[in-house]
Amino acid sequence: MAETKREIERKYEATAGADVPDLTRVRDVATVVDEGVVELDATYHDTPDLRLAADSITLRRRTGGPDAGWHLKFPVAAGVRDEIRAPLSDTLPADLAALLRSRVRGGEVVPVVRLRSARDVHRLLDADDGLLAELSVDTVRARRLPRGPRASWTEIEVEAADDADPAILDAVEKRLRKAGVRPSRAPSKLARALAETAPADDRPDAPPPCAPGTAGAAVLAYVRKQAEAIVALDPAVRRDLPDAVHQLRVACRRLRSALKTYRSVLDRNATDPLGAELKWLAGELGAARDQEVLAERLRARLGDVPRPLRRGPVKARLRVWDTARTGDARRKAVAALDSDRYLALLDRLDALLADPPLREAASRDAAKVLARAVRKDHARLAARVDHALSLAPGRERDLALHEARKAAKRARYAADAARPTLGKPAKKFSRRVKKVQSLLGEHQDSVVARATLRDLAARAHAAGETAFTWGLLYGREEAAADAAERGLPEAWARAVPL
After folding, report:
1. How far, rounded to the nearest angstrom, does the alpha carbon of residue 101 sit from its chain's CA centroid?
2. What is the Cα–Cα distance from 147 to 153, expressed in whole angstroms?
3. pLDDT, position 204
4. Stretch (H or E) spanning 236
5. Is 266 helix (H, G, I), strand (E, B) or coil?
6. Is residue 162 a contact partner of residue 16, using CB atoms and an 8 Å limit?
7. Which pLDDT tens digit goes with each residue over 26-59?
8. Nearest-angstrom CA–CA distance, 46 and 485
9. Which of 141, 268, 288, 474 has the highest local Cβ count within 10 Å?
């Protein structure tokens, strides 16, 4: 079973045989214990075209040292990575392979670099002998595989202990800089090894499909950003990281929305089938996200009810309901990511970006084309809002408001895609449409919550429990929907087009 460790470290340039300065002069460091030299032998794996390295992901199989095994590292922030470990084996463990599926697809990972390091380890302890950090001087020998160029260097690596304040790294760096040691220019050993052992390649880069400043360049940049987000968020969903399902679903929706909004730039005959697949994926992810949102809402509503008004085992019933539905929703989301249909979608996105189906407007000025598209989406939203507000309260009005919410999302996403081109006007429009979207979303969430509360009340009644509290919550949800509707006209009046 793989385990995850948050790795917070910094790397520095060093010369062979370099002496480490006296680190007991670093704040909070009372003792430095020399642990001796450990021999490490790591083989780094990647796709033949180095897709993992391109995304600053490292996969290695390492022997030697206390943590021998497979290590998969995902970047979190500068100097921070999540390291997922699995026991040593001859082949890549299945749980690690799953986390790479969105990048590797139907291909395979192969050995690309071998690094052998002599690691001289020093433990930095506080006055109570607690570990603050480990500093190692690594003498590295790298070789491109299978029989490529070699490189060698020495570096200093400082890693904060698991429970230590990361500020210790700042204090150590201050001391190292005084001794003339400077930060490494490479973010990782693998990055340096790949750079220093890269074969000569004189092939010129392919020209971009659209000239800078054109509508095609702006739209393709946004499409590429969302496509890359889908790939990058896949392992986060599999790891069940907070908000990962929501972010992946939003990336699908943003991309699908852009393909619809900017049909004057990208041929819909090519993009409509892709949009249908993005809708499918967002729908498969939706069960997990919708359950998460609904459960949080009902827990919050129940928490606001005074204890004397909580009649019967309402908390227990809500917990059982959520547990059953959450497990099913998560299994559905992961099954979608494991499907061949999903991999085919990713391949089609790559194909779209490699050879985009451009229309005549793609070569025109980006500002004019994008502004026109945003205004068109605003007009579409206006028609839906006006229609919804003209209806009497009831099911038809609820459905119409939900359709208006979808149009608000599309208009907002269109403006977000145009922000690099249109600047502040697009940002302002997006912010105001988001307010409209939020009110419509609050209304729709109340509609869904009331349906669930009716079901919970029926289950409670069938079990011989009182349904009083569920009815109370139902009334509060009705009030929340009414408040959202009352606020809509004012918010909508402010959402003027570009």
Report:
1. 15
2. 19
3. 63
4. helix 215-238
5. strand
6. no
7. 999 999 999 999 999 999 999 999 999 999 999 9
8. 53
9. 288
Tokens of 334: 């992961």
User: How many Å apart are CA 315 and CA 386, to the nearest integer?
Assistant: 40
pLDDT at 106: 87
Sequence-ordered list of residues with C-beta below 8 angstroms from that of 171, at least 6 positions apart, any chain: 26, 27, 28, 29
CA separation for the pair 372, 389 (Å, rounded) = 26
Would you say 135 and 124 are in contact if contact means Cβ atoms under 8 Å apart?
yes
Token readout for 379 is 């007009």
How many CA atoms does the CB half-sphere of 377 hold within 13 Å? 32
Q: Residue 308 and residue 312: Cα distance in Å, rounded?
A: 11
Taking CA atoms, 33 is separated from 22, 122, 127, 181, in Å, by 12, 6, 13, 21
Which amino acid is residue 279, in one-letter code? K
Ranges in the chain, pLDDT < 50: none
For residue 322, which amino acid is it?
Answer: D
CA dist 379 → 264, 321, 365, 438, 497 (Å) = 17, 41, 22, 19, 8
Cis peptide before 313 (omega within 30 of 0): no
Cα–Cα separations (whole angstroms), residue 330 to 238, 240, 451: 9, 9, 22
pLDDT at 283: 93
**Side chain identity at residue 424, one-letter code:** K
Output phi, psi for 215, to 5 deg.
Answer: -60, -40
Closest CA to 137 of 158, 161, 119: 119
Q: Which two three-digit tokens encode residue 251?
A: 């990336």
Give, in order, the Cα–Cα distances in Å from 137 to each of 140, 205, 382. Answer: 10, 38, 64
Please check whether residue 282 is in contact with residue 256, taking contact to mean a CB–CB distance below 8 angstroms.
yes
CB atoms within 10 A of CB 67: 12
DSSP string, 116-180: EEEEEEEEEE-TTS-EEEEEEEEEEEEEETTT--EEEEEEEEEEE-TTS-THHHHHHHHHHHHTT
Q: Measure the CA dihedral 340/345/350/353, to 10°.
A: 170
Read off the tokens for 303. 């928490």
Which amino acid would we find at residue 339? Answer: S
Write 201-209 long-range contacts (CB < 8 A, 24+): 209/355, 209/356, 209/358
**Distance of alpha carbon 25 from alpha carbon 11, whole angstroms:** 20
Give the other-Cβ count within 10 Å of 181's Cβ. Answer: 20
Phi/psi region, residue 490 (left: phi>0; alpha: psi -120 to 50; beta: rest), is alpha
Helix H or strand E segment including 350: helix 340-354
